[in-house]
TrEMBL record:
The keyword Nucleotide-binding applies. This is Glutamine-dependent NAD(+) synthetase. GO terms for biological process: NAD+ biosynthetic process. InterPro entries: C-N_Hydrolase (IPR003010), C-N_Hydrolase_sf (IPR036526), Gln-dep_NAD_synthase (IPR014445), NAD/GMP_synthase (IPR022310), NAD_synthase (IPR003694), Rossmann-like_a/b/a_fold (IPR014729). CDD domains: GAT_Gln-NAD-synth (cd07570), NAD_synthase (cd00553). GO terms for cellular component: cytoplasm.
């Protein structure tokens, strides 16, 4: 059997465009004399669509495209993922839908469920994820529910499909990540196949850093346990849920019967390749492309998401506040790589609090990248607004409008983003960015309607220490980011207390606070301040070891246990207080970690 793997870009909410892409790959597969072409999960409708699934006309469009794909199967078999719809409604009164696999052959859909009088021309996904960004049970039923409704064990209703004497054990995405589920599709299927058969998993699985190692471990184990090779086919592209933007990296993989990955398709790239299945073995003649790892892979993912999403939003230019600091410098590089430096407009907005060091760094960055650059001082406007408010007063309240201290700092931040950058963007026909990082977002070290504004937040899922790591990776081949931006202390430069030339900067202690914040928000079993306090009770050495912080560095920053606890409580209070109010109003975050703020990390305002 010759199998053509179609690692296609899936465009969410556009079944007609996705069908055109499928037609292209089907043509390639036929030309390669393939017997079977395999597409990803939900390749017709897209995956992250939220309540668009409640729009009946959209579902009907997808069903029509399913039929169009079926008509293309007269000369080649086609396995693909899409939505399936029953005639009756579900328990919520809406259409009864499935995330399903279809197998089209000789112009017809094969029956993929045939048990005790229950027949379906599609195979419903067995396991529906409802954690992190996933919420499939809100929209779909599954094979477990179908079995339960008809009083049939899942172990009987889930069966492989036979094609020319070969049994294909088909699963859909989460069906492979079954370790925490009572029902395990791969264990059921491996009892119904033998040497000479094949397992295929179709997925639309979002990228997270390091996921390839976890996937190789999980799917490699499935292949080894069944002693049968496995083909994993994933989508590429970007999709979002309104608050988080995800990349789908592809990385479709071929596993032999010993569980070894013998070939992977390129990441973040549409690609088709021919896989030969003969005598129970998979083989690929194509040479595997080298892939990036670590922060270089994250770099690639971010640029990919920026490029794809600006195109989707019809934004061709971007305006960035270039402060001379590390966040704006890294953001500028990412956007310049994504859409071209000529389309990235850098604006430096100084006041008397901005040092020559950062001003020069901002200009040097623009020169290194070749971006349009402008200096737009904001102090005159800030002072005019302050003077104007000082003349004003309320009726029935004697509060004086004295804009000093933190009020003046926030005024500067809001002028820079919501006024200057937004207006410049309007004039040049561009969007503008939010340069905030995950550390600042965690504890609200940002100004609402100021630096939290923008069309999307490129660094919002990177801790500050990761931003520095990314800067060093960017400069590893050629110095693009000025060294001054890397060397100076991180600072908002909104007052004399934040003078970078005097070594003054943000109150967040890097890298310690990054690791503390990650301990609170990234662990699968969520930790609270009580957990960090209990950990500290075990001693500073154990505390630092668990967080991954250098003990000598940590001891140089804190002189007593009371000081540590006081600092911890301060940041916890912000994390669960004012920062939460700011987070829920953040722009969409490019998500690359195992837990990102937004719709991945769901929060409610409680107090």
């Amino acid at each position: 059997m010759r199998i053509y793997v179609a690692q296609m870009e899936v465009v969410p909410g556009n079944p007609e465009k996705n069908f055109s892409t499928m037609q292209k790959f089907i043509g390639e597969g036929v030309q390669a004399s393939a017997d079977l072409i395999v597409f990803p999960e939900m390749c017709v409708p897209g995956y992250l669509l939220s309540d668009l699934w409640e729009e009946n006309s959209f579902v009907e469009r997808c069903i029509q495209v399913n039929e169009s794909v079926r008509e293309l199967s007269k000369n080649v078999d086609i396995l693909f993922g899409s939505v399936a719809k029953e005639e009756e409604n579900g328990e919520n009164g809406r259409s009864l839908l499935y995330n399903a696999a279809y197998y089209a052959s000789k112009g017809n859909f094969k029956t993929l469920v045939d048990c005790q009088g229950i027949q379906k021309k599609f195979l419903p996904k067995t396991l529906l994820p409802s954690y992190r960004e996933f919420e499939e049970p809100r929209y779909f039923s599954d094979l477990r529910k179908l079995a339960q409704t008809n009083g049939i064990p899942v172990s009987e209703i889930l069966c492989p499909v036979e094609v020319n004497g070969v049994k294909l054990a088909i699963t859909v995405c989460e069906d492979g990540w079954d370790s925490l589920y009572k029902i395990k599709p791969f264990e059921i299927l491996q009892k119904k196949i033998s040497s000479g058969d094949l397992m295929i998993n179709i997925s639309c699985s979002p990228y997270t850093q390091g996921k390839d190692k976890a996937r190789d471990r999980v799917f490699g184990a499935h292949a080894k346990n069944a002693n049968v090779p496995l083909l994993y086919v994933n989508a590429v592209g970007t999709q979002n849920n309104g608050k988080n933007i995800y990349a789908f990296e592809g990385d479709s993989s071929v596993y032999n019967a010993m569980g070894e990955s013998i070939f992977s398709l390129p990441i973040f790239e549409e690609h088709g390749t021919l896989v030969n299945f003969e005598n129970g073995k998979l083989s690929v003649s194509e040479e595997e492309a080298p892939r990036k790892t670590g922060i270089a892979e994250v770099h690639q993912a971010l640029v990919y998401m920026i490029r794809k999403n600006l195109t989707r939003f019809s934004i061709r230019k971007i305006v960035i506040g270039a402060s001379g600091g590390i966040d704006s410098a890294v953001s500028a590089v990412l956007y310049a790589e994504a859409i071209g430096s000529e389309n990235v407009f850098l604006v430096n907005m100084p006041t008397r609090f901005n040092s020559n060091t950062t001003r020069n760094a901002a200009k040097d960055l623009a020169d290194n990248l070749g971006c349009p650059y402008m200096v737009a001082p904001i102090e005159e406007v800030a002072d005019a607004l302050r003077a104007s408010l000082a003349k004003d007063s309320f009726v029935r309240n004697d509060t004086q409008m004295i804009v000093e201290g933190i009020h003046y700092e926030n005024l500067q931040a809001r002028l820079r983003s919501a006024a200057f950058l937004a207006t410049v963007a309007s004039v040049v026909g561009a969007g503008f960015t939010c340069n905030g990082n995950k550390s600042e977002v965690t504890v609200g070290y940002c100004t609402l309607y100021g630096d939290t504004s923008g069309v999307m937040c490129a660094l919002g899922d990177l801790w500050k220490t990761q931003v520095y790591e990314l800067a060093r990776e960017i400069n590893s081949q050629k110095v693009v980011i000025p060294q001054a931006s890397i060397d100076i202390p991180a600072s908002a430069e909104l007052s004399d207390a934040q003078n970078v030339d005097e070594g003054k900067g943000d109150p967040i202690i890097y890298p310690y606070h990054d690791r503390l914040f990650a301990f609170w928000m990234e662990r699968w079993q969520r930790n609270s301040i009580a957990d960090s306090e209990a950990l500290l009770e075990k001693g500073i050495s154990e505390y630092c070891k668990e967080l991954g912080v250098d003990e000598a560095f940590f001891r140089s920053k804190f002189q007593s246990k009371e000081e540590i606890l006081s600092d911890m409580k301060r940041w916890w209070s912000r994390y669960k207080g004012i920062a939460l109010a700011k987070r829920i109003q953040m722009p969409p975050i490019l998500s690359v970690s195992r837990r990102a703020f937004g719709f991945d990390y769901r929060e409610a305002q409680l107090g």
